[in-house]
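#onboarding

Welcome to the new folks! Below is a worked example of what a typical request in this channel looks like: someone posts a single protein sequence, and someone else replies with the predicted structure as tokens. Don't worry about understanding the tokens yet, we'll cover that in week two.

Example request:
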Amino acid sequence: MTVLEKATRDVVLKPELLLLHILCQELQNAQLLHSEAISSGFRTLLSLLAEAEMVVMAVQSAHCLEVPLTHKGKLMVSKEYIEFLIHIASQNMEENSRRINRFYKHLELALETAASANNAPPGDEERLCPVY
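Example response:
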């Protein structure tokens, strides 16, 4: 609280949970990533790079929290409310961590399934993976 009481400008609580950009060589890879991200609780945005014939996919957390705490140096909320916001932000971080783990596991399984469906030799999953 001491830091907020000494603030001379606006202070906003805005936890940034996850933003992941993935460059995919093929649309089918982006579709696979999109499906697994959505099923894991994330939002996605797709962008096509026409010249490179690639797709950029952004995976974002669905949780959003942006709360002004001070305005022009004046504390606008109570200490109890700040503690409540921190509790909510911590819960969102924990849920986001669970979603990241779920996304990783779903994606890993989907890539293994796709590789076996294409009769790809072991270790050739790179062909199906997005380019980082």
